[in-house]
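Marked as duplicate of an earlier ticket. Keeping the data here for the record.
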Amino acid sequence: MPNLKDLKNRIRSVENTQQITKAMKMVAAAKLRRSQERAETARPYSEKMTEMSASLARGMSDAEGGHPLISGHTENPKKIEIVLFTADRGLCGSFNSGVIRAVRAKIEALQANGKKVSLTCVGTKGDEVLRRQFEPLIRNRLAGMTRELSFENVEKELALQLVHDYDEGVFDECYIVYNKFKSAMTQILTWRRLMPVEVGEEQEEVGGGASHLFEPEEDELLADLLPKSVAVQLYQALVESDASEHGSRMTAMDNAVRNAADMIQKLTITYNRTRQAVITTELMEIIGGAESLKG
């Protein structure tokens, strides 16, 4: 028979845990509202910047001596950089593990094809897990970027370094992987090629192909625009990841609150049944003692 004191202590412990998870859920919900608004506000600018860069890049893709962010270093890239976005803290469901699992599978597939892989970990959780298996591959570790989440900070701390490394031939291609925010319960694991720029197919314009005049010249314009486009995509990935983290944590804490309530209910039923059994046993002992005195 379970001990009543132990059951009571366990109920109290679960109640304390429930209060903590409830508070964490409320904090995550408050942060989610701000992060979601920031991610959704940044999307149109990011999409138009990417569209404009791709449009200019299509016109320069066949030009001799084109910008390396368009033409790439080689037709057969051997050195691949992966930038992964995870959280600095846990307790957010499968948010971190989904990205880490995808990156691990990608690394193994690339290495099986003879590629050399390097990693940039934005967020401590990805670094903590992947360094156990891929420590030599990790080039850069960036933590706490969401605490001062601004475009200027992303450009300074991450984008300029990646563009510089690409220009220096440290890697031939760069991919980013992050969770794109859809709702508090749904995040979409997203892969994008960051460098060289994805040109894509040219869309037919209404009224025929229109000619454009550029000031300054296209090559000069691209030299400024393409690094800026890289920074914009990295910023968008970070704000999407930040919103996804808070949504995932809010959902995880909500599930934890519900599970704690179910556990408290089951433990309370067990406690009441055990208490009733103890009382019944004591009554039987009293009745037995009284009967023996009569005899």
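See parent ticket for discussion. The beta strands are 79-85, 116-122, 138-142, 173-183, 186-195.
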